[in-house]
Specification:
Layout lengths: L1 E4 L22 H12 L5 E4 L9 H12 L4 E4 L11 H5 L6 E3 L5 E3 L2 E6 L12 H19 L7 E6 L12 H8 L4 E4 L13 E3 L2 E5 L10 E4 L2
Parallel strand pairs: 1-2, 2-3, 3-4, 6-7, 7-8, 8-10
Antiparallel strand pairs: 1-11, 5-6, 9-10
Length: about 230
């Protein structure tokens, strides 16, 4: 089975409590770990949609990544907007984790399913946005294309993992969804939205793509089953 969860916001320093978003975040790390062990098996895959750790440097994130390494299943991780520790793919892979893979312009195959993704970026009104944000948005679009191209049509299904929702402020689809349509993507998961941000969640079948929001507080800190193979 394939599960997904985003925005773990692990913090081995204890300096970034998440209960500013509500009391449901109290002891959220322990709750995620306990729930994970209840539903995920060793042969399952878990997709993590960014914002993994509050660490600022790669070596500081190691402890949080080891917690994930020790949990059941194979894990595939993308970068979130708060993953400041994220470095080059080579440095990430130098940790030589046995159960963790990182997506950055690449892809992975799990059975008949291809896993691709990138961080994404907030939707932009090009009439009002600054040049820097437009550049980042376009770069993330290109990274999604690179990730999709790396699959080389070798799978029956494709899952896109994003951090930012691929929707405009009015909840219409944005350019990320246009790319997904062009590549016949089947499923898209995303995170980023917390607390009052849940009002911007869009889920269900749109243009033959199934969308899931997997921000951990939106799914009650329980990994969500995305696909049963």
């Amino acid at each position: 089975m394939i599960f997904a969860i985003g925005d773990l916001h692990f913090d081995n320093t204890g300096k970034k409590p998440m209960d500013i978003f509500g009391d449901n975040w109290l002891n959220h790390e322990e709750e995620i770990i306990n729930n994970w062990k209840k539903v995920v098996g060793e042969n399952d895959l878990v997709l993590l949609a960014g914002d993994i750790s509050w660490a600022l440097k790669l070596e500081e994130a190691y402890e949080d990544l080891m917690k994930i390494e020790s949990l059941p299943g194979r894990k595939i991780i993308i970068k979130g907007n708060h993953d400041y520790w994220w470095s080059s793919l080579k440095k990430l892979n130098d940790f030589q984790f046995k159960t963790i893979e990182f997506i950055q312009n690449n892809s992975f195959i799990h059975g008949s399913v291809g896993i691709v993704g990138t961080r994404g970026w907030s939707s932009i009104d090009t009439n009002e946005s600054d040049e820097k944000n437009q550049r980042i948005f376009n770069r993330e679009l290109n990274r999604l294309k690179l990730s999709l191209d790396s699959l080389q049509n070798k799978t029956e299904k494709i899952i896109v993992v994003l951090h930012y929702p691929p929707f405009n402020p009015n909840l219409s689809t944005n350019e990320f969804v246009n790319i997904m349509r062009d590549y016949d993507v089947d499923i898209c998961i995303y995170g980023h939205l917390h607390s009052e941000g849940h009002k911007y969640v869009v889920e269900g079948n749109i243009d033959e793509i199934q969308f899931h929001c997997v921000s951990c507080d939106y799914i009650d800190f329980m990994p969500k089953k995305i696909l049963e193979e």
